[in-house]
Amino acid sequence: MLLAANGYEVTVVEKRNQVGGRNGRIEKDGYTFDIGPTFLMMLDVLEHLFSAAGYDLHKELSIVPVDPMYRLVFDGGRRVLRPTRDRARMRETLEAFAPGSFDGYLRYVAKEAEKYDKLIPCLRVPYGKLSDFASWKFVTALPYLDVHLSLYDVLGRYFQDEDLKLAFTFQAKYIGMSPWKAPGTFSIISYIEHGGGIYHVRGGLNRISEAMAKAVREKGGTIRLSSPVKELLIEDGSCRGALLESGERLEADCTALNADFAQAMTHLVPERYRPRYTDEKLRRKRYSCSTFMVYLGLDTVYEGLEHHSIVFADDYRSNVEDITKTLRLSEDFSVYIQNASRVDPSLAPPGGSTIYLLVPVPNNESGIDWDAVKKEFRDKVVAAAEARGGLDGLSRHIVTETVITPLDWERGMDVYKGATFNLSHDIGQMLYLRPHNEFEEFRDCYLVGGGTHPGSGLPTIYESGRISAELIMKKYR
């Protein structure tokens, strides 16, 4: 979008019959589901990107705030928290949940706002060489990085109540990590929610991808759907474009690669051209968890259920250990529920609704035979949503459904090891130590997406696109 708006001749080739990838949609029997992301945060990032391309985001998309931000369910439903950005209501909510905790919340907001202001500028620039760490932005941000602490430790500064600590650290799941292992740097993720809010796009977050595609076409770009790439064309140390599976060669001055990084390397780039990222080296890298997805079209609407709900396992830490360390399926698991039709009836036929269930699970390093356990685990997820999630009688109202397992992510969506949040975000795989926006293995190739800097999550993925676009524009003035 940015390149087309700045006069570059842009061709997008997409394997599927729609744009968006993991931010695409499932349409089935009159119901529409987002495939992946359902939380929209850091609205200013999208506002800036659309403005830079000559568009007003709010004229292209219908965006509504979500408040309360979500319903958090602990202890089998005996404790429920509904965080809100309304400060007066948040005081009442927190004091009812854990008396005396609001003072800690005020300290959290003040300290994390300062941290956010220092760290976000560091994520908006590329790290293509070690000297980039010497920038004044990065040097002044060093005292705020908290890399020596875990995310859980950082939140322990503000809250004593264990469930409150989870309420401000579960966001580690957005990057596919454990709050006990994720660097304390990521405490800004929960602040992003509390400071800037959570939003929904009418029609689903997949509409963002569609709006960008519309802008590309209007600015003269070409989008070719159902056009899978067989391999990148590497000649004399440069990427010269792509060879399609049809046999067609698309030659280009530069190529931006938006596929899942490790999957693209192992399938689109011959190993001799990527000595830093051989198949063996890629296998040894650390990857995020995966997700088990159930998309349900219903003949009813759960009017009283919040837009977002997260039902925590009774032993959350053990559940996270199973997902990230022991790599097995927990009997006691956490489940995320989206009930978007309550505010967006466009997603379902009249009188119906969509329910989106997500359970974090191990990636495919686990060796779990998903073809064998898919049906049984699906039934457990639906039963948990009924028993603990507030969806009484859910099974009786299902009209249509789709299930995606970690194996489906890998086979159907080309996600390496089914790790839906890409490379993990430990300190050894961040900034300069993550694959670079201007790819280091051969010239004229640029990376965008969760596998490069700044990392996973919609706002940071959009920032990766902006960073790479600006690098290309700088090179080809």
Helix content: 25-40%
CA-atom Rg in angstroms = 22 Å
Total beta strand runs: 18
Give the count of helical stretches.
16
- The main sheet orders its strands as 6-5-14-15-16-13-17
Shape assignment? globular
Low-confidence stretches: none
Output the keywords.
34% helix; three-stranded antiparallel β-sheet; 477 residues; alpha+beta
Describe it for me?
The protein has a 7-stranded mixed beta sheet with strand order 6-5-14-15-16-13-17. A hairpin with a 2-residue loop joins strand 9 (229-235) and strand 10. The protein is an alpha+beta fold and 477 residues long. 34% of the residues lie in helices and 17% in strands. The two termini are 17 Å apart. The chain contains 16 helices and 18 strands. The model has no long low-confidence stretch (mean pLDDT 95). Among the domains are: 84-197, no CATH class; 290-416, no CATH class.
TL;DR?
This protein is an alpha+beta fold and 477 residues long. The chain has helices at residues 2-5, 43-52, 57-60, 87-97, 102-123, 136-141, 151-155, 162-167, 187-196, 206-218, 261-268, 279-284, 316-326, 370-388, 406-413, 458-475; strands at 11-13, 25-28, 31-34, 63-65, 71-74, 79-81, 199-201, 222-224, 229-235, 238-244, 249-251, 255-257, 290-298, 308-311, 335-338, 353-361, 398-404, 445-447. Among the domains are: 84-197, no CATH class; 290-416, no CATH class.
Would you spell out the secondary-structure blueprint of this structure?
Layout: H1 2-5, E1 11-13, E2 25-28, E3 31-34, H2 43-52, H3 57-60, E4 63-65, E5 71-74, E6 79-81, H4 87-97, H5 102-123, H6 136-141, H7 151-155, H8 162-167, H9 187-196, E7 199-201, H10 206-218, E8 222-224, E9 229-235, E10 238-244, E11 249-251, E12 255-257, H11 261-268, H12 279-284, E13 290-298, E14 308-311, H13 316-326, E15 335-338, E16 353-361, H14 370-388, E17 398-404, H15 406-413, E18 445-447, H16 458-475
Helix pairs in contact: 2-16, 5-9
